[in-house]
């Protein structure tokens, strides 16, 4: 169209028409870009280690702009939807982060193979402390502990020595003088002397009186119980 009208237009009119046509095209393109949503890209692929090409399950795939992301499955495969101008960030424990810049691509689907490099971390001096309170706290707690008093052991008192009811003579008894009561001389003296005969006679009299008293007592007992059919000795 421009070529057909060009021979019939003057130089000034041709320049003005060109500017008008360029402005119209720019306005049309801007209106189209403002009204349409930004294009999206389906980014899929596999995350693996660079040294042995083994999959890295659980690796995180994030959109750096929104921090929204997914995790790779057991085979290291993933799928995420991003804008064409986004940057995809890959992270895994023990590996260096990897960034994939889409850079305004016009593709609607992108399949990538991400090779992650191990991150070598050099540890300095490490102090390992057990899960226990500070030593000063322990010492303060020990000082505040009330130690139990030792149990009082009551020693039983000894019973007093028994006191005698009467005064005890501690002096030893005097030895009795020897006698001849147990000898044969005493027996002979008792049998044939006058004193011996009198002693035996007195003993016989005492025995007879005792027998008479016993018989009298038995007779009184029988008389008291005879009417009641009592027992008679």
Automatic annotation (TrEMBL):
Entry keyword annotation includes Signal: yes
Keyword Ion transport appears in the UniProt entry: no
Classification via Pfam families: CarbopepD_reg_2
Region Disordered, annotated ranges: 151-184
Gene3D superfamilies, sorted: Carboxypeptidase-like, regulatory domain (2.60.40.1120)
Coiled coil regions in record: none
Signal peptide: 1-32
Keywords: Signal
Protein name: Carboxypeptidase-like regulatory domain-containing protein
Native species: Hymenobacter ginsengisoli
Lineage: Bacteria, Pseudomonadati, Bacteroidota, Cytophagia, Cytophagales
């Amino acid at each position: 169209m421009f070529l057909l009208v060009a021979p019939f237009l003057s130089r000034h009119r041709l320049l003005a028409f060109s500017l008008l046509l360029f402005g119209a095209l720019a306005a049309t393109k801007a209106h189209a870009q403002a009204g349409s949503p930004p294009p999206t890209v389906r980014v899929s692929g596999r995350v693996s280690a660079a040294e042995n090409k083994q999959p890295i399950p659980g690796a995180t795939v994030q959109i750096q702009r929104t921090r929204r992301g997914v995790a790779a499955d057991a085979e290291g495969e993933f799928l995420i939807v991003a804008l064409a101008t986004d940057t995809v960030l890959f992270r895994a424990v023990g590996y260096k982060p990897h960034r994939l810049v889409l850079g305004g691509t016009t593709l609607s689907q992108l399949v990538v193979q991400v090779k992650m490099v191990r991150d070598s971390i050099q540890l300095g001096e490490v102090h390992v402390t057990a899960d226990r309170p500070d030593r000063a706290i322990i010492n303060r707690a020990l000082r505040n502990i009330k130690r139990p008093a030792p149990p009082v052991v009551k020693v039983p008192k000894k019973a007093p020595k028994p006191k005698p009811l009467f005064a005890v003579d501690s002096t030893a008894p005097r030895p009795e003088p020897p006698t001849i009561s147990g000898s044969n001389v005493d027996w002979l003296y008792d049998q044939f002397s006058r004193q011996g005969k009198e002693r035996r006679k007195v003993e016989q009299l005492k025995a007879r009186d005792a027998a008479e008293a016993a018989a009298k007592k038995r007779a009184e007992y029988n008389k008291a119980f005879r009417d009641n059919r009592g027992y008679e000795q």
